[in-house]
Amino acid sequence: MKQVLKRSSQGIIGGVCAGIAEWFGWTQTRVRAIYVLASLLSAAFPGLLVYILLWILLPPPEYHANK
After folding, report:
1. C-alpha–C-alpha distance, residues 50 and 18, integer Å
2. What's the pLDDT at 1?
3. Is the separation of the CB atoms in 65 and 10 below 8 Å?
4. Which of 3, 8, 51, 61 would bridge with 19, disulfide CB 3.0–4.6 Å?
5. Rounded (10°) CA dihedral 57, 61, 44, 49
6. What is the pLDDT at residue 62?
7. What is the pTM of this model?
8. Which 8-state DSSP code applies to residue 58?
9. 3: which DSSP letter?
10. pLDDT tens per residue across span 4-32
11. Measuring CA to CA, how many Å separate 2 from each of 5, 23, 51, 65?
């Protein structure tokens, strides 16, 4: 079964980083560290904008691909 990229219910704010971590099979800490570094290197505003867009676009944790 193909795994769907979605937000996680284990997330701190919106579950975006936790959902990406589950999708890649990484730890949440690794994804959050990469996100923070990428945000700082891009002057933080684009990183925040990307996070908000992913929060809106990614399906919630209860999403099932079979529906």
Report:
1. 15
2. 59
3. no
4. 8
5. 20
6. 81
7. 0.81
8. S
9. P
10. 889 998 888 889 999 999 999 999 999 99
11. 10, 10, 24, 9
